Sequence to fold (110 residues):
Amino acid sequence: AAAAYLLLIVLQSSSFSAGVLAPMAVLGVAFAAMIGPLTAAVMSSVDEQDEGLASGMSNAASRIAQLVGVALAAGLAVFSGGFAIAFVLAAAASAGGAVLIWFVLPRPAS
Fold:
């Protein structure tokens, strides 16, 4: 959500570091924080002999979600007259997904 917001406020006169590097760094940190725990949750929930299948399914679901997200954002940008609404909706979807994951993923036993 933060990366989408940073991309939303980018101006044509923005520098490389403010307009490209900062949002991509935020996105990279978010991916690093989310992908590891998500993969660990998937892999720990299956038997050892099914780990290859679980890994493949997890990767396929991730790629499909990315493709659908990009297609929806591009469609919203075209039909709403700009990228602003697409980035706002992308940020909202990201925040909503993070909240959903927080409540759905099981917590490790303490």
Remarks:
- Helices lie at 2-8, 16-44, 51-80, 83-104.
- The mean pLDDT is 80.
